[in-house]
Amino acid sequence: MVGVMEDAVACNGGRILPNSREDGGLWWPVMEVGLQWKVGVAMVAALACDSGSWNGECVAVGDLRWDGIGHLVSMVELGKLILNHQPSISIIIFFTSSPYDTGKTAPYISRVAATTPSITFHNLPTVTLPPNSSYGAVDQLFGLPRLNNPDVHQALQTISQTSGLKAFIIDFFCDAAFEVSTSLGVPTYYFFTSGASALSMFLYLTTLDKTTTGSIKDLKDYIEFPGTPPIFPTDLAEPLFDRHSTAYKRFIDTAAHMAKSSGIIANTFESLEPRAVKAISEGLCVPDAPTPPVYCVGPLIASSDQASDEQGCLSWLSSQPSKSVVFLCFGSMGLFKAEQLTEMAVGLENSGHRFLWVVRSPPPTDDQAKHPSALPEPNLDTLLPKGFLDRTRNRGLVVKSWAPQLAVLNHDSVGGFVTHCGWNSTLEAVCAGVPMIAWPLYGEQRMNRIFLVEEIKVALPLDESEDRFVSAAELEKRVRELMDSSSGKAVRDRVREMRDGARAAFQPNGSSGIALAEFLKQT
Ligand SMILES: O=c1ccn([C@@H]2O[C@H](COP(=O)(O)OP(=O)(O)O[C@H]3O[C@H](CO)[C@@H](O)[C@H](O)[C@H]3O)[C@@H](O)[C@H]2O)c(=O)[nH]1
Asked: Global pTM?
């Protein structure tokens, strides 16, 4: 959660507040930002506030996510952006530790706390689901925040006693807190961490729910969401497939609440997704009620990548020619089975191109999206084809588990990016002007692929087999296409155009600056 508060709050800045309840069990990241207001993302966790130290008007913001870092970074950047426009504000970010944390969250929080005094982090109480509960991943994402509702209630009340709480900004998965903040009369905003095209789909869900029968995955035709290319049902996020599942209900409830909220802050910029932004603002996604204001204030990406480069990615890149290297990296959670890793190695070797490849251990089961935090470091000698590392030594670098992606993408030697289409990775590539090859794995990534390939035209697709396996030949073909061919050039030119659009969005009179000013004016 993030809360924004007045001047007086700044004196708290940069510290990490202690957890107020020690229940043991699962921990999740939640953020809060504070300045002249507090902005809060309502999740399980409450804003645990030091009531005596916050005065004036506040905004509280919260974010509770088990894959942590992607949502946390963009939330922090939102806090920083607010501070740039209104330096008198203090931001309070609520967080809890996550059982799926890749180990990046704590150092990141410490760094922000140390360098940005107006941002304060508050560690929320731990909550746990009942033992033996058969919650799926998405049920947990929505369900755990609900357990923190009493804490959120208490925190918002506490803040309100010493500060004029003007707004509460919640992450999508913190939807449970919507009922808390609205019951207290606090204007509540959603922070949508993906793009406007995904937001169009999401806001339209309640309409789709009312106008269709049966499960979405059984629909036989493409779905037309306003302002986006047609989407085949099986390209939607899997939790939406089964109309009778709890996860489906959570998504529908969240979409309905979002439509009733005081506004939606989206991590995108107008010139990246003009059709979707227009469709939303014209009310096409919520046809039976007024659409709340949507503020496209992005791209919100980390301002610098201070992750360490223990594996020497950057020095290796510095020894490679300009724009010659293909970077392969699949977000904070992407995993591949061993057979797929072998196939990728063959494809890369046969492409003849230079590459920097982040490899993780395969999941212990068939579940491709199992979180990497529980896995050991990969054994490259056994995972990759015999002799592969030796044969590609002069033109390839394989690193284990994690790379400083932002710095890598901004290195002059990188000329292409094979990505899982996570939205932060997408924005980072666009801002660095690096064209993509889209290899979605889970979540809304299959939809993002359609937007990136068909609408925004900054990525080439990868054809998969029915069981979503990508052959070595396909990867080889697409890498060659991206790096060598005229269709690759079209994508390269287009992504640079979008990069310039991203820069323009924050220039005086740029669309994102204007959107943020409007948001601040409304709160
Ligand atoms: O080796 C790595 C891997 C990742 N990252 C960083 O981690 C972040 C990953 O974010 P993202 O690309 O958004 O992927 P996920 O972590 O998978 O993000 C989740 O959240 C996104 C935003 O809502 C969604 O678009 C995704 O589908 C969902 O999986 C980015 O900042 C990367 O730079 C690194 O620095 N090094």
From this structure: 0.88
